[in-house]
Amino acid sequence: METTALTFGEPGWLFGVAAVPALAILYWLSYRNGRKLIDRLVAPRLREQLAGTLSAARRIVRAGLVLSALAFIVIAMAQPRMGYRELEIKTQGRDVVLAIDVSRSMLATDVPPNRLERARLFSRDLLEFLRGDRIGVVAFAGSSFLQAPLTLDQSAILATLDEINPDLIPKGGTNLAAAIRTSLAAFSSAEGKSRAIVIITDGEELDADGVSAAREAVDQGVVIFTIGIGSAEGSLIPIVGDRGKQEFVRGPDGKPVTTKLDSARLEEIANITNGFYLPLSPNAAKELFFAGIESLQRVESGSGNLRQPNEQYLIPTVAAIVFLIVWLLVGERKWQRRNKVRPTLAAALFLPLFSLSSACAENAFSLYQQGDYAGAMDAFSSASKNGHEAAKNAFNAGVSAYRLGQYPKAVEAFSQALLEGDAELQEKADYNLGNTLVRMGEAASGKENKKREFQNAIEKYENVLKAKPDQKQAQENIEIVKKLIAELDKQDQQKDKQDQKDKQDQQKD
């Protein structure tokens, strides 16, 4: 019955999604603690200058994008599935019957833990190589019967191997002929050399003509491989006595029976059918498959329907990639910041205003573009003394001096441009003079010197507003400089309060 419900191939991964909210909480706590720490260590004025370009909202958005990408990656790892499709498959393989000796002699311990348990282990190892082959199981001792018919279901074969034991067949002995004939009867009528019998036994106590049965297998195109389990020295056969005590199988003379591996008859049976004999070893299953069974012809062994789920992992994977791409594109800085005190916006307004025609000015432009501000300042200063476009060259010299941090020279150059330039150039010279004076005020020693430079900067910004009232940047910078002056006044007040307190303390003492 078809279904379109959403399922997951590895639902255990979904527990990872629950970790995403926990990570979000940890990030928020870390961010908040970091802000508190900065507030305690950095003064408000410096805080704006050091981190004024960073946007808290953008940081939170970037963190959300990363956490969302992580959540979708975890969902993709859980292998989401929506519905399924039916596929018809045809299998090709060989027919292999495992004939396993379950006689009492297989309880001998010369091959630890015992021969029968090692036969089971060998059979399980061989099953790993027989993928796609039909497998059957025949149990035999003094007689034999089909324990599991040919099937592609290896789980059923494994269950059968766990069930075999010496109590399955009451008749003792090792009747190889019966094992071979029961195995032949288990095969279908398929033609071609695609059928094999693997006999796993100690080869002892042959009660019938195994060689004759092997010739019957040759007539039917069946190959026999034999696996010998045991040792030439042999071992006693343990049994459980009446009182639960361990005893050993005894012969007619009353003496314990020693069972030994009989490999000669096993080699003869295998050779008749163009197979071969192998003694039990750790690599016996691998050697048997690659040297023998793999060479047999494969035939169509059956067909069936395979239900294959419709994997949907691509959707959350693409979503995670999209979130990561957006995370890369979204920076942590604000879109726009008009605080002119910051040097990043100052650079845009300090560019030379005009491309000058003289060779000296062109050389100065070239030096400026190469980052040689000292050379550009000297070249513009020399060009400003020639009289031709002197004001523009003086302005450009001020720009270069500002870039070098030589603010007194920048003030001198901007003042020259202010005196000789036209209205537009005077406006920009006043604005840049205000910026330069702010820098000088920040670098000045003593609060009075700082306040004097800040007041001069305000006058220059006000001159800009008189000529151009809609100059928003000048108005914003006036507000910023006023805040700087207010902070200096606040510091003076705090100092006066502290001095007064110290004086009162001294009087008390």
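the 2nd protein, sequnce then structure:
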Amino acid sequence: MRESREVLRLAMVGGRMGAWGSDLRSHSVWWSVELEEIAGLPAGSFPGTRRATLRWVHPGDRRKLWDSVDRAIRSGEEFALEFRFHRAAGDTGWVHARGRPAMDAEGRPARLLGIAMDISERKHGEDVASHLEARFRTLADGIPQLAWMARPDGWIYWYNQRWHDYTG
């Protein structure tokens, strides 16, 4: 049992993941030490309330998170979504959260259990790639030549704006 816990802890830390749970009746919430670490909190310092959880979620994503959780509770099915969160240091990160309701003996949702994975690095990479693509398009569309890209089989999958202007 101890070895299994250590392997799970290593997987959680290595995958930048943390576990969480919520009692739907008492509204208490717990975060694993790995999740507290992702948020930049000292181990054991998370207050354990729904209100405290929502304070960590970026205001622009709170409704999206709440709607997903509510749908999962009503349907009994798993939810998954990405949202921004605040770190203790004051910066903003991204997590991919998955959760599922756990039912009581009568088949009613009693708890919500899940994981959250820190995807901040991936989101940063996507942002950089998007900016680079925009710069490339500006450059490619600004040259007077016709430009295109093709796969090895000859299928042309991209044309610059000059090509479209010339060919109509």
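The two ends are 68 Å apart (CA to CA). Helices lie at 2-14, 33-39, 50-56, 62-75, 120-142, 161-167.
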